[in-house]
Specification:
The protein is α+β, with helices and mostly antiparallel strands. It has four helices and 13 strands.
């Protein structure tokens, strides 16, 4: 269901592109030592369509690509993790082929569980590992859902990077550029958003200060704008993919109702699906 309440239908697909290349393989050694193959192994390609109900409704097609450029928190890049695990897995092999296969499978599952649990304990003080990712997305709108009537639907790219500051801090930087054409009575625009966030704490609780600025250029010149906003506060992870945050500043004052906010003692609280640095505006 779109923002106007219209029922939409469509399909969506996400895949790792290298798995679709015939004869392409990436070994563990490649993953750990060859940066290009590491990026390719972690690339995520998404394709989706959406079409409103009705015979004359347009169909929107979007394609997105996410590239993990660096992630020092990835256990499979650590030989300190993979080499002991390989030795443990070899010990699970049965002495005779086709004998005790179920026991071997249970052994592998248990060794993998123990290895990841141990790695998780080891990396609790590395929650702020150095990471960098790049995303690109574009789209096409097919008027009346006809393939011959395709119009450029926009483009967006974003980069996010983080760097540890001792074991208890982290600096995050994000840059986003959006180019949206005008459709109907909606003006086209170009939006550049950039900002940073400084965190102090741990993987589940931290205090933060963030500053975000944006420059908007629109077909409707009355919307052209350049502004900056800031906020500070704390956030706490209630469960996996569920965060509770509170703070103050001009950015918190603009949180939309869709972010599930409430006010206690003049502080605005928000429930979010993840702890992240978002854009400020959705024109």
């Amino acid at each position: 269901i779109n923002e106007e309440g219209n029922v939409q239908q469509g399909v969506a697909l996400e895949t790792t592109p290298w798995a679709l290349i015939p004869g392409m393989s990436i070994s563990l050694n490649d993953y750990q030592r060859n940066w290009l193959k590491y990026v390719l192994a972690n690339a995520q390609l998404s394709v989706g369509t959406a079409r409103a109900a009705g015979d004359s409704a347009p169909t929107d097609l979007a394609v997105g690509l996410r590239l993990t450029l660096w992630d020092e928190g990835d256990p499979m890049r650590s030989r300190d993790f993979t080499e002991p695990l390989a030795a443990e897995l070899r010990a699970c092999l049965p002495d005779t082929p086709d004998v005790e296969e179920e026991a071997a499978a249970r052994c592998v599952d248990e060794k993998m569980r123990q290895a990841y649990a141990g790695y998780g304990e080891h990396t609790k003080n590395q929650w702020n590992a150095r990471r960098a990712a790049l995303g690109l997305a574009t789209g096409v709108r097919f008027v009346n859902s006809e393939l011959s009537e395709g119009d450029y639907g926009g483009f967006q790219t974003w980069f996010v990077g983080s760097n540890p500051i001792t074991n208890y801090g982290q600096l995050l930087l994000q840059l986003t550029f959006s180019d949206r054409p005008g459709f109907g009575d909606q003006p086209g625009f170009k939006l550049l958003t950039y900002g940073g966030r400084f965190l102090v704490g741990s993987a589940s609780f931290n205090g933060f200060v963030e500053v975000v600025s944006e420059t908007l250029s629109s077909d409707d010149k009355s919307l052209d704008d350049a502004s900056g906003r800031w906020s500070a506060g704390v956030e706490f992870r209630l469960a996996s993919q569920l965060w509770l945050s509170t703070g103050f500043g001009s950015r918190f004052a603009t949180i939309e109702a869709a972010e599930k906010t409430f006010v206690i003692l003049d502080l605005r609280w928000g429930l979010n699906s993840t702890a992240r640095l978002d854009g400020l505006r959705t024109p």
